[in-house]
Hints:
By secondary structure, the chain is mostly helical. The chain has 7 helices and no strands.
Amino acid sequence: MTFLTLLLLSKIVGTLFTVGLPLLLLPIETLDRFAGLRSEHGTLYRLYGIAIMALLVGYSGGVFQAQAGQFPSGVVHMGLVSNAGATVILLLSKVPGLVKSSAVFFGLISLGLLAALLYPEVAMQTL
């Protein structure tokens, strides 16, 4: 397993259980409390949950590429934009503390992906 594989798997598992599945499965009232919002029908939560799941499919492709010895530059670029963007938005927003604290997770993933882009030979070394 490479550093990049481990990073992508951490992203997949962490996001699946803290963002993707909750957005798809939790009651709308619970999601409203977490987000500090009020939604009439929760469609945007569900759509965002599906979008997150689609991103996780992309990350999974990166895991398979990295395990095959190919640097998945497209996945790394996608992940950098997604995670760095989420970090900035969360830090600048007025969301509740529990939601805002997820910026740490997204920020760390961003830094790892940036390091992988800058040093792909290190990211692809077997641990």
